[in-house]
Amino acid sequence: MKRFIKNKIVFACAVMFLFSLSVNAKERSSKPNVLFISIDDLNDWIGMLGATGHPDVKTPNLDRLAARGVYFANNHANTTACTPSRLSVMTGLSAVSTGCYTNKSGVQNQNLWNEVLALPAFFRQNNYYTMACGKIEGHACHGIEKEYPHQKLWDERLPRGFLMDEQTLRDGQGYGGTIFYPFPKGGSPIRNHNASYKGHSLCAGPINPDEIPGGKMPDELAADWAVERLKREYDVPFMLGIGFVRPHVPYTAPKQYFDMYPVDKIYIPTDPIGEMDDIPLYGKAMAYGVFEPGDERMVRELGCEYRKELVQGYLACVTFMDAQLGKVLDALDNSNYADNTIIILWSDHGQHLGEKRSWRKQCLWQESTNSPMLWVVPGLTKGEICKQPSSLLDIYPTLIQLCGLNEKVKSDGISLLPQLKDVNKKRSQPAVTTWTYGSHAVRDERWHYIRYYDGSEELYDADNDYGEHYNLAENPDYKAIIAKMKKYLPQDIYTPTSNDVEFNSYKKRVDQWKNNPYWIPEWLR
């Protein structure tokens, strides 16, 4: 009798074990894997179909990826700085909803992490194995796992940071964030020219392998880590996050990528005479930035060659990043997961390279708001361009729907599934971008409307003026267009804080300029 009972127990355990294997196999086959690729500060200087960017750029791996899926050419970041933008991706909530407007403003919505699961945590709780390397989340998400255990993001993660040595630290001249190193050998030309200037990360230069601690850049390490993970076997579907930091400043990459762009032969963005004539003071304050005496002034003081070197460096970093992406795509193609993996590739915002006298991304013009986004979904559209307005806020609800995780979630975004099936399918609302409290931009298929905190406005016709050289806001012929776009302006819930350095800086500067127009720099007039 005892032997009979024991045999029944053994048999039952075996059945349960086989059932669990069956469940895992079913889960593995029914749910797609997710390759979640973030690129830092990538503007539309890419070779993908539909990109209007730079004529000299070389991005063969972005190009081949675009041939597999849908490129959203009219996609926009919800905010034009790293931390708030990445927070919007991870939560599906806008800066107005979270109260996180800038890198240092903090998250004012104290109930945020009780209201919504961060995207990787959501996938973990739905039986996905989550992994990450490089820059994915941003500062606003880094501490949540300690305070909110239910928000655990990753089952495993490549540690953040970068191996440093004394020379590398000296070249950085006090710049924070080791993941962005190395700087050019000898340090930033801007800091060497003006030791008090805090914007010295705006620099470029080729790096030899013996000048890189450990011999590999952070993005190379991230790509290697991701490639190794794609060689493994998994019992459940996975979400693999890869965050490439280039082309974020400083614009450094191995020398071979600089050699692809001879500095005397590349196209430099035009800087039309009178470019700032029709820009409101608030827009000019954003172009000036928060660092004294302004990026554009420092670039001018260093001369025309410095402007060329920055463009060369940015292009070199884009191609370097593209090469790392290629390693990951090769690994995926050679893996068991090639036919059952969704790829979402996105940039947290754009980047100015001198357009509108700006060298950063913290503005509301096209160069800052436009965020390249590409989706590859097995069984859906290939090699298509969607020109409908879309937002990084749409990533969260789209991924959930594509993966069959149809739980009701709180989101300010809209699923992109209709456009992934038909790129010409009309969207029900435009894309909205916020940069600092009270300043917002609205972008539909054709028009780009900006309203600043002080009520001043800009309007651009993307069909006829993609470079946004002619502000139509004062033209009475466009009153109806402006009235239509205004309906989509968000209502700010949270007020600025003392940590909102950019907002306070812009407001103070505009007040000063109104009182004394002679204080407006010549290069912004």
Automatic annotation (TrEMBL):
UniProt entry keywords in alphabetical sequence: Calcium, Hydrolase, Metal-binding, Signal
Extract the GO molecular function terms from the UniProt entry: iduronate-2-sulfatase activity; metal ion binding
The cofactor(s) it depends on are: Ca(2+)
**Regions crossing the membrane:** none
Q: Name one GO cellular component term.
A: cytoplasm
What InterPro entries does this protein's entry cite?
Alkaline_phosphatase_core_sf, IDS, Sulfatase_N
| Domain of life of the native organism | Bacteria
According to the entry, every stretch annotated as the Sulfatase N-terminal domain falls at 32-404
Signal peptide per UniProt: 1-25
Q: Which Pfam families match?
A: Sulfatase (PF00884)
- Supply the PANTHER family for this chain: IDURONATE 2-SULFATASE
Write out the similarity annotation: Belongs to the sulfatase family.
Q: What is this protein called?
A: Sulfatase
